[in-house]
Amino acid sequence: MLLPGSRLGVMGSGQLARMFCLEAIPFGYEISVYSPEKNSPAAGAGAKEYISTYEDEKALTFFWKI
Q1: Where is the PurT/PurK-like preATP-grasp domain (predicted)?
Q2: pTM for this structure?
Q3: Is 15 helix (H, G, I), strand (E, B) or coil?
């Protein structure tokens, strides 16, 4: 079980990620999303965005470590 205050990472930042954020953030979770899309629906719901292509191994490795 992850305690509130934990950071959760989501691949993709569309409407499903947005709905996830809307449920998780009120419980105290920090959400980070990774996608090539700027100003995504998930970011509008309060997620921190990491923007790069899915083929960028360096960026993906950085995202996995946060």
Answers
A1: 7-63
A2: 0.89
A3: helix
Residues 6+ apart with CB under 8 A from 14: 35, 37, 40, 41, 42
The separation between the first and the last C-alpha atoms of the chain, rounded to the nearest angstrom, is 18
Q: Which of 49, 8, 1 is nearest to 25 (CA)?
A: 8
DSSP states of 39-66 = S-HHHHTTPEEEE--TT-HHHHHHHHH-
Look at residues 2, 15, 1, 3 and name the one whose alpha carbon lies nearest to residue 47. Answer: 15
Over residues 21-44, the pLDDT tens digits come to 999 999 999 999 999 999 999 999
Domains observed in the chain = 7-65 (3.40.50.20)
